[in-house]
Amino acid sequence: MTRYRTVASAFVTAVAAFSPGIAHADVPAPQLEAPCPADLAGTMTLLPDEQTYVVCQEAIGARFAWTPAPTPFEPNDQWLSYGPVITLHGQGMRNPNLTSGQWTATPQDSETVCRAQQETVIEAGVLSVPQISQGAEGQSLSLAMLPKLFYAELSGNCLWVKD
């Protein structure tokens, strides 16, 4: 009987470990020339290829679309992360994507958690220990983008706006 319980217990543990969790609809990643909401006008994001920067701007017919951002571009004060990490560069690098200062991340749905991981330049070739800021599910997150920011990894379906 003990052997049976051990095998049954192992089976239940294995089933639980390999069962999918509660499914949430994935947020579709922005696509080049795809529509974007007018309230995101001027907002930038990084496409999943991690190389193409796009900006939501008015296109033909008074509709808004994700259009290629000319590079290099001036640091932007509004960014959209759409789930997976987007990595942006700060003023600790040439051609920063964003500037240091107070920022607010606003979830775009009630199940989203906004998260930022930042590393700063300590000295040439040396970065700080990552600093992580994370909001509560469905709640805005206020944080400081650090001086000498090398990079910031932003995640969650969130709109990041410099205050």
Fold and architecture overview:
By secondary structure, the chain is mostly beta strands. It has one domain. The chain is built from 1 helix and 10 strands; from the N terminus they run αββββββββββ. The longest helix is centred in the N-terminal third of the chain and has 17 residues, at 2-18.
Q: What series of H and E elements makes up the topology?
A: HEEEEEEEEEE
- Uncertain runs: 1-24
Task: Report the portion of residues in β strands.
Answer: 35-45%
- Quick one: biggest sheet? 7 strands, antiparallel
Offer a concise description of the structure.
By secondary structure, the protein is mainly beta. It has one helix at 2-18; strands spanning 44-46, 53-58, 64-68, 78-89, 101-107, 115-123, 126-127, 131-134, 141-145, 149-162.
List the keywords:
mainly beta, 1 helix, disordered N terminus, seven-stranded antiparallel beta sheet, single chain, 10 strands, 163 residues, three-stranded antiparallel beta sheet, 10% helix
Protein topology:
Blueprint: H1 2-18, E1 44-46, E2 53-58, E3 64-68, E4 78-89, E5 101-107, E6 115-123, E7 126-127, E8 131-134, E9 141-145, E10 149-162
Antiparallel strand pairs: 1-2, 2-3, 4-10, 5-9, 5-10, 6-7, 6-8, 6-10
